[in-house]
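Translate sequence into structure tokens.
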Amino acid sequence: MADIAGKDNREAMSEQAIANMYSVLRSELNQLYSKITEIEMEVSEHSLVLGAIQPLDPSRRCYRMIGGVLVERTIKEVMPAVQRNKEGLEEVITRLNEALEKKKKEIAEFELKHKIKIRKSDNEAKNDNSRKEGTAQGVLVGPASEQGV
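Result follows.
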């Protein structure tokens, strides 16, 4: 009798560990999405600045924030630096998108390996009542919004 209780406890811990690992993977995925969005906003700001200063006289004074210090420069000096920064940020976005795709594949493989099924929210479940559930065994995990991610 003690063997059965011990086995159930190990399986429950195993399922909990799988659910925790899945939660960590989803969290990492969400962090990648957030970082990509943040950097895309910076690229957008750089584009706006370039669009605003491009038609102006290159010898005109402008101010640029460098490491928290406001520095006076000319448009001729600032424009190439802002363009380089923008290109660097676009490169970072490309790398983050590659990492995002790898993370998506990793999550998909993890779901397949551990037979993870995503539990639908109450509204989705009501709309999908006609679908019959199979008898496959696996770990059930709620949507990311319910897991505090």
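Note: The chain has one domain: 10-147.
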